[in-house]
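[job 4417] fold queue: 2 targets
>>> target A
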Amino acid sequence: MAHVSRISARRSDILNQRRSISIELPEFAIRALEYRAEVANEGSAPDDESVTFNDVIEWYVLSPLSVKEMPHLEEAVPGFTSAFTRWLFESTYSPPE
């Protein structure tokens, strides 16, 4: 059983690596995402970790995922659940109330 955990942890490490991609969005969507980052950073001290445009995009892409979808995603992308759980615990962004 411990061996399986190590394989899962290794896959999680691979799946949590960063990779740049290029996307095309309408200007209003880009401005809305920039606004969300600005709102999240309002009142933050200069030495606090700030929310970036990328943080907001990550949150909007990943936060709608449900527990129901995890088995399907895990089957399609082995290690997904572990990587997602790790991202969730390491994520610092909270959407505005």
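>>> target B
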Amino acid sequence: MVDLFDIAARLEAEEKLRLRYRFPVSSADGQVSYETREGKLLDVAEDAKLFYVSHRGEVLWVKMEEVIDVIADGDQ
């Protein structure tokens, strides 16, 4: 399980992190499947249990239950 307060502290210390997460994708017939994505972690909202990640120039929010892992950004 990911510790939001630890992740927030690491971001505050300017550590560059990436988020690996499951993203829900709806098909034309209404079925929902998940794809695994990874993006730069921008911020977290501890109380709301949300992660903010950059994906193709957009900022997305990711729910705690969709998070797979938080890893160090190799571009540090």
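[job 4417] complete. Note on B: The chain has one domain: 4-72.
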